[in-house]
Amino acid sequence: MKIVIVGLGNIGGSFALAIKESGLNHEVYAIDKDIETLRTAEEQNLIIQGFESPSEIIPKADFIIFSVYPLILEDVVRSYIPYLSDGTIITDVTGVKRNIIGSIEPLLPENVDFIFSHPMAGRENSGLAFASAKVFQGANYLITPTPRNKTENVQFLSQFVKDIGFRNISEITPEFHDEIIGFTSQLTHTIAISLINSDLVERNTKQYTGDSYRDLTRIANINEKLWPELFIMNKDYLVEHIDNFKHQLDKLSTAIKDEDVKTMEEMMVESKVRYHDLHSLDMKE
Amino acid sequence: MKIVIVGLGNIGGSFALAIKESGLNHEVYAIDKDIETLRTAEEQNLIIQGFESPSEIIPKADFIIFSVYPLILEDVVRSYIPYLSDGTIITDVTGVKRNIIGSIEPLLPENVDFIFSHPMAGRENSGLAFASAKVFQGANYLITPTPRNKTENVQFLSQFVKDIGFRNISEITPEFHDEIIGFTSQLTHTIAISLINSDLVERNTKQYTGDSYRDLTRIANINEKLWPELFIMNKDYLVEHIDNFKHQLDKLSTAIKDEDVKTMEEMMVESKVRYHDLHSLDMKE
């Protein structure tokens, strides 16, 4: 199968690495605007050949993985339309789905099957240099089929990502995807940003931190060119999740002010139960 | 040197393990109310002998480490007073300092030197079975000297914890300790509790999580018999930190609602700078 990865950054590069390490017998090509990246990937035998434009390789593609920033995805897809062949399967890696699907599906030719999906293995650093096959191993993968997708193609994508190392592959609606990602990914990033930005820098906090502060700020190393657009595209769910979180925090804060041990204990018992439930799955370590 | 560890739980047990693995030539004893724990520790050669009461071993102690719950520390110390010998050095492991020092210092005989301290290596599981020498390796250690402490004893404690694996040992005031711990440890725990408790359980979130949600909820496995008292003893600083955090979160939430990309980008750039500063120290991994 001829696979074309469009955008050979952190995630696109990780796909190339994971395909290579899976031992699957695919021919992998890439398109990227950065010629240095393409040459590096060719030298590392990550790809057979790199291209700066779609005209030559896209017509031959059996499977295309769009791994570009959400804000440019629509324009990139639009410019690729003339080169798409019948029967080509396509996916993306975008962290929001309703908006992206709504803008891209109307552009698609009839015999091309774009199955939108989202690898739950975000990396905070950008660029091919930070790509890694390991980050996909055991991670979750979300597929958001729509009525226009062919069942066998959805099954192909599901098997493909399993073969390159993902573990729990879920098929969910775009709405549910955005709701849950607003919680597990976007809310957590807003919390990490707010936490680290509420630090008093002159206190030289790093001298006195334990694991908990390091755990909660690990994702504060955020790409400011990517995340604002993701937040905006999902703002209805995200703002709701922030409000629910704040409601819990206010409840706890009030209990602390009132020295209300009973409420604190109840909240901690609840959080402990939920923690054990969360970690009861054999999850990625 | 004869060392007596009072309370052979997770932290007390980790001290015993770390002393053993350091190769230092100390005689380590322990006092615990649970005789099974003492026998286990004896069989594992973690301690020379275990005791259920202080009368026999405390008079012989050169150095005592109180590793008991903060709420019982004052009573335990009070009951040990008759057995303390002149020149004995004492420390504790309590996560708050102003309140603890204020209640314990007035009880102490003149020739006993209680130097209050705090190993920044909390563990979420309790009991000797979860003790580990590894958790101390490279961790931060906070010592909060008071005017009644002898300089040479503070130096002894500092060298001792360095010898058993701690890396950055800071001497700070009890006030500064409580202020910064309210931020790095207590605020992070209130956030983790509030985050996991704001989850919709029926959504079966664990199927769809990435690393960020796991990172931010790792400390939600909280001991409800320990933390409410720590929060209450430090509520002035903790509530202030919660308010500062909420201020940042509100600012970000408003920017999301208003689709104010500029403010979001500024906050993210700031959080990225702070992240890199935080991780610029060669810290515990």
TrEMBL record, chains A, B:
<dbReference type="InterPro" id="IPR050812">
    <property type="entry name" value="Preph/Arog_dehydrog"/>
</dbReference>
<keyword id="KW-0560">Oxidoreductase</keyword>
<dbReference type="InterPro" id="IPR036291">
    <property type="entry name" value="NAD(P)-bd_dom_sf"/>
</dbReference>
<dbReference type="InterPro" id="IPR046825">
    <property type="entry name" value="PDH_C"/>
</dbReference>
<dbReference type="Pfam" id="PF02153">
    <property type="entry name" value="PDH_N"/>
</dbReference>
<comment type="pathway">
    <text>Amino-acid biosynthesis.</text>
</comment>
<protein>
    <submittedName>
        <fullName>Prephenate dehydrogenase</fullName>
    </submittedName>
</protein>
<dbReference type="InterPro" id="IPR046826">
    <property type="entry name" value="PDH_N"/>
</dbReference>
<dbReference type="Pfam" id="PF20463">
    <property type="entry name" value="PDH_C"/>
</dbReference>
<dbReference type="InterPro" id="IPR003099">
    <property type="entry name" value="Prephen_DH"/>
</dbReference>
<dbReference type="InterPro" id="IPR008927">
    <property type="entry name" value="6-PGluconate_DH-like_C_sf"/>
</dbReference>
<feature type="domain" description="Prephenate/arogenate dehydrogenase">
    <location>
        <begin position="1"/>
        <end position="285"/>
    </location>
</feature>
<comment type="similarity">
    <text>Belongs to the prephenate/arogenate dehydrogenase family.</text>
</comment>
